[in-house]
Each structure stands twice: as C-alpha cells, then as structure tokens.
Design goal:
Helix content: 55-70%
Shape: flat
Number of strands: 2
Signal peptide: 1-25
InterPro entries: Cyt_c-like_dom (IPR009056), Cyt_c-like_dom_sf (IPR036909), Multihaem_cyt_sf (IPR036280)
Radius of gyration: 38 Å
Strand content: under 5%
Number of helices: 22
Keywords: Heme, Iron, Membrane, Metal-binding, Signal, Transmembrane, Transmembrane helix
Transmembrane segments: 157-175, 214-235
Pfam family, one: Cytochrom_C
Distance between the termini: 110 Å
Order of helices and strands: HHHHHHHHHHHHHHHEEHHHHHHH
C-alpha cells in the first residue's frame, strides 16, 4: 500500500513537471507561424528582419537585447506594450535605444497579449524558411544549350539553301534576258516594231476615256487617304511608352486596391490630374524597400527587377535606406506623358469626377453591360487596374467626346444640378418629351463650342 502511494505521488510529480515544462517552453518559444502574421500586421511599417528601416532589424532581437543591455524577454514585453512608460521609468537601456535611433517614437501595442508577443519574438528568432524566388533571367543550362545547337544549325542550313535558290533564279533570269535580246535583233520582229505604239501620248489618245476614268478614281482615293490621315493625326489609342521607372497599376490599383485619388489627388479638385511627386511614392516605399508579392509579377520580370525599380525611387528622392534619412541629392524623373490634350481644348477633371461621376458610370455600364466599371476614371482611361504598363485606352477625339455628351444622362438629383438647373427642369422636359424627361449632357450645352474651346 505504501509502495503504491509512493509511485502514485512520483507519477503526479512527473506529470506536473512535464506540464510545467511544456508550458514554459511554449511561453518561451511561442508559435513562429502565428508570429509571422502578427509581425506583418503590426511591425512591418517600421521594421524588417534583416535590415534597418525606421527601426532596427528584429532578427535575433531576443539574444541581442540580452547581450547589449543585459535584459530578458520580460523587458521586451514592457517595451512593446508601452515603451514610453518604460523610458519614463528611467530604464537606462530603453533610453539608450531611443537616443540611438534619433528619438523616433515607437508605437505602443497594449492590445497585444503576452502570447502574441511571444509568438512575434519566436518568429524573429526562428523565421520560417522562405523559398528562393526563381529568376527568369538565369543562365541557360547545358541541356538548354544542347537543344539550342541543333536549332541553330537548322537555321543556318535554311539560310544557305535560300541563298543558293536565289542565285539559281538570278542565273535563269539572265539567260532568259539574253535570249530576248537575240530575238529582238532578228528580222521576225521588224514588222511588229512598225505597228508598235511609240509614245505614251499615243496610248492616251487611243484609250483616253479609260485613262480619265482611272485618273478620277485615283484622285478620289488619294483625297480620301489624305483626309483620313489628317483626321487621325494626334490619335494614339494603344500608345504605351516605356517609363524611366517601372510602375504597375495592376499591382498598386488592382492587387493592393489603392484608390486612384490617393496619388492623383487633383483629379477631384482641379482641372488637371497631375503626375504625383516622388514624395507620394515615398509615403509607402520608405518602408517597402523590396518586392515581396511574387504572384503579381509581370511575365519576363523577376524580383531583382522590381527591387531595382524601387532603388530608382530612392535615387530620385535622395533617400539613403541604410541611414534612413534623406541626403538632399535628388534626381528629376523624366516621365513620358501619355494623355495630352491640345492647347485649344478645355477639359476639367473635377467637373467630370465630382458633378458627373455617377452619371458617367451609369451611362458607361448601360452601354457596356458585360464590361461594367466601378470608378469614373475607367470610363476614359480604361480598366487601369489591370494594366502593368499604362496605355491610351480610347481615341480621345472630338467625335468620341460628343458621342459621350449625347448619350450620358445628367443626374438632376445630385446637389449641384438640382440647385443650378432648378428653373430649367420644366423647360427641358418640354424640349425632350420623347425621352420621358431624361436630359442628356448635350441638352444643357454639352455641344456648345465654347464649352470645350477657348
């Protein structure tokens, strides 16, 4: 009986030690996979694992603070939850870090639990292995070279055979010409030479009706060709030039869902939708120094290409990513303009984006039920959120604009139109009874020359 009790107690002690050890290990190490999610959600705005961004690199931070400051994970918990309070308490190491990083105030995270912080620290200690990105621009393998060699030999053979065939054809033509010359020198052609027409005037005199008809047709075709060529001067639908810094609207506006007006803010409040300054790019790319979303890559481009384009942004703005500060040495970016109205054309972006927004969207979706849009910008610029390289999506001719004004119904219920055209409603309804009171842009002066031309 005593022996049974003794073993029972030992078993309970062993189980207790096992549970406490497991709990301490879990609490100490945490869950790196969950820590990765928390790290991306809370830390990546200011930190990276392997390099300094706004704050220091966080890979191995637990061991580093232990070596540098002689502090443990409990100190890191206090620092992450409320570093300001920790510094205010007089903690020497906390204040040293604050001074070292230019007194940059770190955000406080009181919402993170102890387990959340343990998971993040576990991720910084043992981050999951990341698969190496395959580069499209790698060198060819030996097998590729072996396959390429026969293809090259075949091409050479085809070229040689073609040249020989052309040479044989030329020899045959020379022989035939020689025979014709001898034939011309014989007496058999003497009679034919006497009846042969000697000049163009004789041909014209003989067939002048046919000649006049052909000349008339040629003149009409030439006039039409010249007129058609003149009418399409300045129409560059499909134009998509290469820019000095690669910028994918598909990644930014499409995959990342960034609002057009975050970068092109004056489209809503001004006449011109300006090209955003590089400082707008730096609002995000100060902390995003490399490309990470491999699924969004354009075919033929690899991670190294995208990382290099981000470095061009840094060079243009004079940003030193290592020191996390501006050098003052900037470089202008010579963007190639795509959409450019002639000087004699007046077009106001804000008028269309604000007053005409819903009307334009409704009109476009009515005419294109299988290709609907959700943003007014797409009515003119196409589905920009699907374009890696921006191109001119429409003609932007006078006829194209007039057609839009004739078919786009004015939203008389929005605040601006309801007040401005209050006294015109009855008059316009009498003028357009066939449409059941529907008023299009041309009814309120949309076709007047002075609306678009100075």
């Amino acid at each position: 009986m005593i022996s049974w009790r003794k073993h029972y107690k030992q078993t309970l002690i062993a189980i207790g030690l096992l549970l406490s050890t497991s709990a301490s290990i879990y609490g100490q190490d945490g869950d790196p996979k969950n820590g990765e999610k928390l790290f991306k959600a809370n830390c990546t705005a200011c930190h990276a694992l392997d390099k300094q961004v706004i704050g220091p690199p966080l890979k191995g931070v637990v061991e580093r603070v232990k070596t540098e400051g002689g502090v443990d994970k409990d100190w890191l918990h206090k620092w992450i939850k409320d570093n300001k309070a920790l510094r205010a308490s007089g903690d020497k190491y906390a204040n040293e870090i604050f001074e070292k990083f230019n007194k940059t105030e770190m955000l406080q995270f009181p919402n993170l639990t102890d387990k959340d912080i343990d998971d993040i620290l576990a991720f910084t200690t043992n981050p999951p292995a990341v698969e190496e990105v395959k580069k499209d621009t790698g060198t060819a393998t030996a097998a590729d070279g072996a396959q390429a060699a026969p293809a090259s030999n075949t091409t050479t053979s085809v070229v040689i055979i073609s040249l020989l065939a052309i040479a044989a054809l030329l020899v045959w033509i020379l022989i035939k010409l020689r025979q014709l010359v001898k034939l011309g020198q014989s007496e058999d052609l003497a009679g034919l030479n006497e009846t042969r027409v000697k000049s163009f005037s004789e041909i014209y005199e003989k067939y002048h009706y046919v000649g006049k008809g052909l000349l008339t047709i040629l003149a009409i075709l030439a006039t039409y060709g010249i007129w058609n060529w003149i009418m399409w001067i300045g129409v560059y639908k499909g134009y998509k030039p290469e820019q000095p810094i690669y910028f994918s609207h598909k990644i930014h506006a499409g995959e990342q869902k960034i609002d057009c007006q975050l970068c092109h803010s004056s489209a809503k409040y001004g006449k011109v939708s300006e090209i955003p300054s590089m400082n707008v790019c730096m609002n995000c790319h100060r902390t995003i120094s490399e490309y990470g979303a491999n699924d969004y890559m354009e075919p033929g481009k690899d991670k190294a290409f995208y990382d290099g384009e981000i470095q061009k942004i840094y060079a243009a703005t004079g940003w030193d990513p290592a020191k996390q500060q501006y050098t003052g040495k900037t470089q202008p970016v010579e963007w190639t303009r795509i959409h450019n109205m002639p000087d004699f054309v007046y077009f106001n972006h804000s008028q269309h984006v604000v007053a005409g927004e819903q009307a334009i969207i409704n009109s476009f979706n009515k005419k294109n039920p299988t290709n609907k849009i959700d943003v007014v910008c797409k009515a003119c610029h196409g589905k920009i959120d699907t374009m890696n390289v921006v191109q001119m999506a429409n003609d932007f001719t006078m006829g194209w604009c007039i057609e839009c004004h004739r078919t786009t119904e004015v939203d008389m219920n929005n605040g601006y139109n309801k007040e401005y055209f209050k006294n015109l409603h009855d008059k316009l309804k009498k003028q357009y009874p066939k449409d059941g009171g529907k008023i299009t842009v041309d009814a309120i002066g949309g076709l007047e020359c002075g609306k678009c031309h100075y």
